[in-house]
Amino acid sequence: MTDRVPSDHDAVETRRVSLERVGRTDRPRVGLPDDLGLEDGQVVRLALDGTQYHAAVERDLDGNLVVTHAADNARLARERDGENRLAEWVADATVSLGGSAHLDVITADHEYGLRTPGTRVVYTTTERPKGSLSDIAEGLDG
Asked: Where are the beta strands (DSSP E) in the chain?
């Protein structure tokens, strides 16, 4: 089941996050707050100004949670393969490296949105998976 929720809805928590450079490159990195409960290697749904992608959360060299790559599907996000939609978004949006963006918490530990500050976005949300693949396999084994 899917629902639509605007970024300014009471159910959406908005946090300001930094858009940084990875080293001396022009590759973007989004710094994530530690109190979101995300873990290194976790793949989440990440909308960029409303367009849905997937991203893997990782730790940088200083141990901070970051996102450096957004992909078209969860597999590509896990492998950090395919087109980097985060880099495309930074290049096309009115955000810049060294600046900030708004991170919307749509469904904690599952679904987030990055948007240009001052813009309103309507997100299409999905239900959180009910169990992991190992839970499903255990159910089949009986």
From this structure: 2-6, 13-21, 28-31, 43-48, 51-56, 58-59, 65-67, 70-71, 100-107, 111-115, 122-126
* pTM of the predicted structure, to 2 decimals: 0.84
Give per-residue pLDDT as tens, 17-33. Answer: 999 998 877 899 999 99
- Cβ(101)–Cβ(17) below 8 Å: yes
Please report the pLDDT score of residue 32 as a whole number: 96
Q: Tell which residue, 51, 8, 36, 50, has the closest CA to residue 110.
A: 36
How many CB atoms sit inside 10 A of residue 9's CB?
12
Give the number of domains in the chain.
Answer: 1
Q: Which is more confidently placed, 134 or 96?
A: 96
Q: Supply the range of the domain harboring residue 113.
A: 2-141
Is residue 5 within 8 A of residue 113, CB to CB? The reply is no
Q: How far is CA 33 from CA 4, 64, 65, 127, 132, in A?
A: 25, 8, 7, 23, 25
CA angle 68, 19, 98 (to 5 degrees): 135
Q: The domain that contains 32 carries what CATH number?
A: 2.40.330
